[in-house]
Design a protein that fits this description.
Blueprint (H helix, E strand, L loop, with lengths): L6 E3 L9 E3 L10 H36 L7 H7 L1 H8 L5 H9 L5 H16 L3 H6 L3
Antiparallel strand pairs: 1-2
Amino acid sequence: MLGQQRFTVSANTDQPIIARPRQRRFAVRPPRDLRRALALAWRGFSVFVVVVGVGFAGYACVQWLETARWQPLTVNRALSSWPATREWAAHPHAWLGLHRIVMWVRSVPIFLLTTAIGVVFILLGAPSPRARRYDDW
């Protein structure tokens, strides 16, 4: 039944019988402009995340040019620089699963993470070929 259309038949005998699709009562779809605005906002946010990742890479490059040592900001350094997260990173009492993930990626530079997350967001927000075929945007 999924994907099939139901048809109703005209009861007027003077008119030829015309089958027309039945209106769905409970199918609530957002207006096309709202969907377009949300898609544009998602794509803008995704590009912003990529730009932030490139900014972190640029900061690491400037640091290298000044000191001749490659020392990008890592997850471990970011957590240890804030007093609120320093204690949690050393001795977690809550969010133990998140702590395991953080300890697994603690030596990864932040610019790699943010750029990769931004690229994934861009790929998730890209319109599908089917949407491009049937939609005019």
